[in-house]
From TrEMBL:
Keywords: Cell membrane, Membrane, Transmembrane, Transmembrane helix. This is Branched-chain amino acid ABC transporter permease. CDD domains: TM_PBP1_LivM_like. It comes from the Bacteria. GO terms for cellular component: plasma membrane. Signal peptide: none annotated. It comes from Umezawaea endophytica. InterPro entries: ABC_transp_permease, LivM-like. Coiled coil: none annotated. The chain crosses the membrane at residues 17-35, 41-60, 67-87, 93-115, 122-146, 173-195, 223-245, 257-286, 306-327.
């Protein structure tokens, strides 16, 4: 690929503006830990984690239209994988992360096949996956192997990238999460643009019947998208477990986590690349802003849910598909589309008009 090939994609003002914004955002993200004290680096880590969580949910929920709450199970699986394998049995944390990804992917694949077998619509898919998540939380709360109601705590001493653990300076967690987010985003963007599988997903979301008539393997692709989505979601669970160093059903298997992923993606713009990321970072900033007024953690959660409701109502009022579609419309309004209007073709004469008749 020559240097000119990537530049030809910057053929509209919207793409050029987005390229500038993304470049500035990445540069700021890279230097952010050097500009703030360690506690604020921790806030940056949480913001990136929310963005990663939203983005991975968006693969199944936004691109395919599977309104799944089973991602709660994936998030919890990633957390419990490192808790059981690494904290209890001293397996390397990166191996535990991969195990969590594989288990979550298999679970996601089977869930999608099962729901397709029964032909459930999006609403019953949400209810069915919610029931699964509640059952998983009940198992974790009653099973000693997973710490029952007490959870599992970390008591090791290893530190560094090889162990996916940092005690004092959270910059390691920050940059690791940033790396995952960038790599996964680029990978999904390439998947959606350059593969038949990726290009088929929006067709499945809009109308599975028509998609099937076009030769798209709807059930298989839905299952693969769910597997990919849940597998990558488990990475966020592993990272937060290592960060807080305690895992319990109350911390990683709650309905609020699933709702936050779903609502955050929808607010940002379901089916877009940047929308879920922007919404995740915005939610983390809002939570930290509320804490600056000495608001308790319980009230922060309540106020955040109120903010969700306000934003959703505003989006419904303005008839947009989320923050990113609103942003794109604003950029086009200011800078134009950048495309030359096509002149209408002149109509061909069909004959001469003689005495009011075409002759």
């Amino acid at each position: 690929m020559t240097l000119r090939n990537p530049l030809r994609y910057l053929d509209t003002p919207l793409r050029r503006v987005n390229a500038v914004v993304v470049t500035v955002a990445l540069l700021f993200a890279l230097v952010y830990p050097y500009l703030v004290p360690p506690p604020m680096v921790g806030v940056g880590f949480v913001a990136l984690l929310y963005a990663l969580r939203n983005f991975t949910w968006n693969i199944a929920g936004g691109y395919v239209g599977q309104l799944s709450l089973s991602h709660i199970v994936a998030f919890g699986t990633g957390a419990f994988s490192v808790a059981v394998l690494t904290w209890r049995h001293e397996v390397n944390a990166w191996i535990a992360l991969v195990v969590g990804v594989l288990i979550s992917a298999v679970v996601g694949f089977l869930i999608s096949l099962l729901m397709s077998r029964f032909g459930v619509n999006a609403f019953f898919l949400a209810l069915g996956t919610l029931a699964l998540s509640l059952a998983a939380a009940g198992v974790a709360a009653s099973w000693t192997f997973l710490g029952d109601t007490n959870g599992i705590s970390y008591s090791g001493s290893e530190e560094g990238f090889a162990h996916l653990m940092w005690y004092i300076d959270p910059s390691g967690f920050y940059y690791t999460t940033l790396g995952f987010l960038v790599v996964i985003t680029i990978g999904i963007a390439a998947l959606m643009r350059f593969t038949h599988f990726g290009r088929s997903l929006p067709f499945i979301r809009e109308d599975p019947v028509i998609a099937a008539s076009m030769g798209i393997k709807v059930v298989r692709n839905q299952a693969l998208a769910m597997a990919l989505s849940m597998g990558l979601t488990s990475i966020a669970g592993t990272l937060i477990a290592q960060y807080v160093q305690i895992v319990s059903y109350e911390s990683v298997l709650t309905v609020e986590i699933g709702v936050a992923m779903m609502v955050g993606s929808i607010i940002g713009g379901a089916g877009t690349l940047a929308g879920p990321i922007v919404a995740g970072i915005g939610i983390a900033v809002l939570e930290e802003f509320l804490r600056s007024f000495a608001v308790s953690s319980a009230n922060v959660s309540s106020y955040t849910q109120i903010a969700y409701a306000v934003v959703v109502i505003l989006l419904l009022r303005f008839g947009t598909g989320g923050i990113m579609p609103l942003w794109e419309a604003g950029v086009r309004r200011v800078f134009g589309t950048g495309r030359k209007p096509v002149a209408p073709a002149a109509a061909e004469p069909v004959g001469e008009l003689v005495d009011g008749r075409v002759g």
